[in-house]
Amino acid sequence: MPVDRLEADLRSAIAGEVDFSARRRAEYSTDASNYRVVPRGVVAPRDAADVLAVREICAAHRIPLTGRGAGTSVAGNAIGPGLVLDFSRHMNGILDVDPVARTARVQPGVVLARLATAAAPHGLRFGPDPSTHTRCTVGGTLGNNACGPHALAYGRTSDNVVEMDWLTGDGRRFVAADDPSVVDGLDRFTTANLAVLRTELGRFSRQVSGYSLEHLLPERGHHLARALVGTEGTCGLALEATVRLHPASAAPALAVLGYDSMPDAADDVPNLLPFKPLAMEGMDSRLVDVVRRVHGNGAVPALPRGRGWLFVEMAGDTVADGLDAGRLLIAASNAVDAAVLPPGPDAARLWKIRADGAGLAGRTASGGQAWPGWEDAAVPPERLGRYLREFDDLMTDHGVEGLVYGHFGDGCVHVRIDLPLEDRPEEMRPFIRAASHLVLGHGGSPSGEHGDGRARGELLADMYSPAALAAFRAFKALFDPDNLCNPGVIVDPEPFDHNLRRPAALPLPATGGFGFTSDGGDLSRAVHRCVGVGKCRADDGFMCPSYRATRDEKDSTRGRARVLQDMANGSLIRGWNATEVRDSLDLCLSCKACGSECPTGIDMASYKSETLYRAYRGRVRPISHYTLGRLPTWARLASPVAALVNAATRRRAVARPMLALAGVDTRRSMVELARRRFTASTADPRRDGPAPLGSIVLWSDSFTEYFRPGPGHAAVRLLEDAGYGVEIAAPGACCGLTLITTGQLDAAKRRLRDTVHRLGGHVAAGRAIVGVEPSCTAVLRSDLTELLPGDPRAAAVAESVRTLGELLDAAMRAGWRPPRLDGLPVVVQPHCHQHAVMGYDADLRVLRAAGADVVTVAGCCGLAGNFGMEKGHYEISVRIAEAGVLQQIRDHPGATVLADGFSCSTQIRDLAGIRSLHLAELLDGAGGSGAATR
To answer: Given CA atoms 459, 464, 469, 471 in this order, what sign does their dihedral have?
Structure first.
């Protein structure tokens, strides 16, 4: 049947969203695996009735059907050639939490973190907690029998399912629980396969490969629901599920045990299991080194000596109980060094490293790209040390490397390996086959929690007898006789080296824009950093503000990366000017948060800028690129007549047509020019004689120079008071920010070369450069070296750049004390670029030392430079602000509002009617006359 007929039938039959566009198909062509399978279309059902109708239409058209949650599946089990059903979009409700029965009834698209939040007030939790729990869905955990660190105490997903509302491939709907009679022939199947079920399945806790049919045995309760968990969508779809909840430990302690090596740590696991830990995770020191290299030494708390660690969580009703349990465990261990941490920020930071493991391990210790593929093999815990030693030898023999971590208490090992998929994908097969033979030789399972999917389905023939494989095939036929559900997975699987994404992508070498030096000068390599872990879909942090507003995969960093990856492939999306590329990047705010928050190091702001550069090079650009993109030039030209310009633009009859002509939404207000430029109104420095903390140079960026000189003047006074000798850089040093965000990179590089020349003398004299505007400061700290790679002067300038907060924090360490703000309530909107590039911790330390009562907005203001000003972006810009800074302002009436970024302060003024303050103004005014006013 033609695609258009299928699409038409779906649109007429369901209330949910139907999308057959090339862009959408690209976004859903892969999950967190190595594979690319382009679907015919994507459907986001609104309810169970939609799912039933979709199944019926797919059956009529003979189109396969694949269910999908957050798309974090590592084995390729959430992609398929037919229709992909995205349950996360609408079918994401928590229908009931029963604290007495300790159960929850949920739809398949509910995120695990939301379920945890709903259960927490009752002192309960859902046991399985994979590292992607902030974005993965219950349906996904049901699909691959997910586990996570706490499966050691609470079991796998299959151990935590009470019943499921199940839809089979041939349209039957029933409640799957512990009654096998709901499926004709299931009792006969179990009787006929008793020997296989008893001898080949369920041998140890992390035997996830294949179907978990041992749950059908009479001694295991004939539990059909548990047997269906882990079938990876090949036997039907869960429309609802009732899951078991567990009492949460009130005060778990974290014992950190150091060993000379990871195998040594694994050897100690059997000694520690009798202490009944809640979790026991292995962590390679090289993984921790990655965190230190990317985020600095301060990102990792002090750790015991060792090259490998066990993170062991011990239950406690009180903090003292948990600490005592941790000490007893340490006393029985063979660790070379150890410590026990109470619940708190240090323990949380260590768990965060573990949670980000999949992304962090995406780069090897030497910085190369590492891939899934042999992602979650498991062996019985008593064999783990020997397995790791032999696995390390195997990697050496094949010339590959990877960073090992994982659920050591269960014998489950995670590792991503630098298989040469880019240029020698044929080397994948011999390594994976050898690794499979190794793990099976230790009585293990190629999959310990992620399922088989396309990555390991072929290996089932190595692990199981022909009788077991026949049993899997017969079981699937009971539920999906026409092979409609996720074909090519588990039963009659495709070869594991088919449909690989990376080998099909062409190089996109740097051509005059960004250098992409960390990716060998290749944008294709850069965008393939995104392996799909999906942290951009989580609710915490700053990343992907537009996704938070729309909940559409299109607006996630991952979705955009997938479209750019597909453009590099060239078979579905073609060229920099493709409509699909433009639409994908349209709502990217270039907030840069992905650069620091995504553990893979993706930098969508740079990729967007580079794409605009290549798409419009030599072509007419959108009008906003000439107006907003060249704002510093227009400001410089208009500055001598600022009073006249301001008087004219304050009249809406004048401002509205000007805004419209400039490509700006007419609901925005005109920004006003300063009556006098910053450098024209700066008094001579007040300090006589040498400064105790040395001389610095305050750089007047374009926003401080032409629009908001107040923070610059306040910064001079504050820095002098702190003990610095302040010099003012001559005007004209522009970072080219607005040119960069609009992709005018040739002009931006000319500006930056001039700026490097202007600031170079100060740097040579050993002076730090302090920026007032966070976004401009971030350009000099990061984009400068990527746009001028190999220029030692640019590198020297970047190394010398400091924020105001960093200098004041250093002054505090030297004995200076900030002006008092005791008890002053302050709502802080950190600028996204500062958060991403420099961090905001130093500013917070200064504010708290001053005594301020600080509430920090966890997200973007929504304006993001030119983004929120442009036509077509106003509504999304306001929606982002409403959920972030505006909500905090409403929740804290009368609080001073702090927003260092010019765009942040503009957004707050436009939407809240409040004049916010810069950190310099707040401290310079000591919370008095500088308080924000309406």
So the answer is: negative
The predicted-structure confidence for 464-493, as pLDDT tens digits, reads as follows 999 999 999 999 999 999 999 999 999 999
Do 776 and 808 reside in the same domain of the chain? Answer: yes
Nearest to 774 by CA among 862, 593, 903, 621: 903
**Is there a contact between 752 and 787 (Cβ–Cβ < 8 Å)?**
yes
Burial of 790 (0-12, 13-18, 19+ CB in 10 A): exposed
SS3 400: coil
Gap between the Cα atoms of 72 and 70, Å rounded: 6
Per-residue pLDDT at 302: 87
Torsional sign, CA 722, 724, 730, 733: negative
* Separation of alpha carbons 451 and 207, rounded Å: 10
DSSP tag of 164: E
Are 359 and 431 members of one domain? yes
Residue 608 falls inside a structural domain: yes
Question: Cα–Cα distance between 43 and 91 in angstroms, integer?
Answer: 12
CA neighbor of 34 nearest in space, from 495, 532, 705, 392: 532
Domain final position from 89, 108, 135: 89
By the 8 A CB rule, do 784 and 796 touch? no
**Which pLDDT tens digit goes with each residue over 249-301?**
999 999 999 999 999 999 999 999 999 999 999 999 988 888 887 777 777 88
- Domains in the chain: how many in total? 7
The answer to whether residues 604 and 634 belong to one domain is no
In a domain, 474, yes or no: no
The DSSP string of 412-475 is EEE--B---TTT-GGGHHHHHHHHHHHHHHTT-BS-SSS--HHHHGGGHHHHS-HHHHHHHHHH
Question: Mean per-residue pLDDT for 816-822?
Answer: 96
**What is the domain extent for residue 63?**
3-89
d(CA 328, CA 861): 48
